[in-house]
Amino acid sequence: xxNPKAFLEIxxxxxxxxxxxxxxxxxxxxxxxxxxxxxxxxxxxxxDCGVPFCxxxxxxxxxxxxxxxxxxxxxxxxxxxxxTSTNPFPEFTxxxxxxxxxxxxxxxxxxxxPTTNREDECAIIETAFREGYIQPCYSKRNGKKVAxxxxxxxxxAAAHTLNQxxxxxxxxxxxxxxxxxxxxxxxxFKLNKAVIDRRIRLMEQEGIxxxxxxxxxxxxxxxxxQSEAIIIATGTPQARDLNIAGRKLKGVHxxxxxxxxxxxxxxxxxxxxxxxxxxKGKDVLVIGxxxxxxxxxxxxxxxxxxxxxxxxIMPRPVEGDVDPQNPWPNYPRTLKTTSSHEEGxxxxxxxxxxxxxxxxxxxTGVRVQEIDWLPSPEGGRPxxxxxxxxxxxxxxxxxxxxxxxxxxxxxxxxxxxxxxxALNGASLVVRAMASGIETAHRxxxxxxx
Length: 449
Known about the structure:
By secondary structure, the protein is of the alpha/beta class. It has helices spanning 6-9, 20-23, 36-44, 53-57, 64-72, 76-84, 90-96, 100-103, 106-111, 117-131, 153-165, 181-184, 193-205, 223-226, 255-266, 291-303, 339-342, 421-424, 429-447; strands at residues 145-149, 168-173, 209-212, 229-232, 252-254, 283-287, 307-312, 346-349, 351-359, 362-374, 383-386, 391-394, 397-400, 416-418.
């Protein structure tokens, strides 16, 4: 521990975002970076706790105290080695992870200024790429083949881990490029897709084969004959729908329809005018208060919307740093304001959606009802009750961002494994990666017998 008093002498400093009036006109990453001196100062704030709760909170078990100390001392290569000993893709988590480790940091309990772990790990991996610390790693082949179905975070993590163990890995992806939710769900202003391309090129150099445009392959298919094991990492493709009157009106879309199409447009793909989903000049309503809804808000602004409103059926979260119902070191369920929210958005809670309204087959508005949640006399889930009178929110575009349904799987053969969101339901990218790594080790244990 280079400076045991740094957490007392140095305040937490975040890199922050580009100015709003600059960033809303493009899809470039909104987050800025600190200079090398500032980054090392921030790393020095890590206390090297006797019980590092950051280890406990991180699904990957990242060794934040160790690589923060190496970063503070200026040993970027050692920091890179420590970081990648547990995290195969820090360039992803360093940009989009909600930093469970930071919420569990002792400094978060002490003064609500935890170590900037997420930004630190992003700085470490970007320096590693820039300085050439990252080179293709070629493993001795063991003669066994594994097929991975799905090239999202879980599938990529599983493929990377098995490839390092010596397996010949082929990844099958239904889309035209790898990344899954990273590429087709998360906007470029949070994760530039060149970052994904850079990693995929490295994985290909290391011997992993990618096959695109391949639809979901049943485990009983020909792959069973070609591979010793199959990993299903197909995510949660089915979004939660809102089957109310007017659902078929033109202008009502799932959130990922907008997000995926916009990312494809930025990648150079063209769509006919009648298929293009755009918020330009429209009043936009986002139904759902999570991160996907936030991504829709930022995208709508960049497409030139007239206004954007976000509604959520659940109550408004508590404000501040402390959640009485979910205390430290657990992740607090407090009000989250993203960079997209800062760009302008009307946010409302306890709102139930009743009906989509339209004219000549096109959406014109949404009838909603303010509600309350009361304790159930029988216990369990609270009871929803109406409050006030229904109202109409003007909207020409509605984006449904209410989460995803957990997939149901048949009983598979012993050499077929499921991981990530396909196994656990929709969750964080970091949890999907951890599941992919864990599943890779299970495959290895099975095939090593």
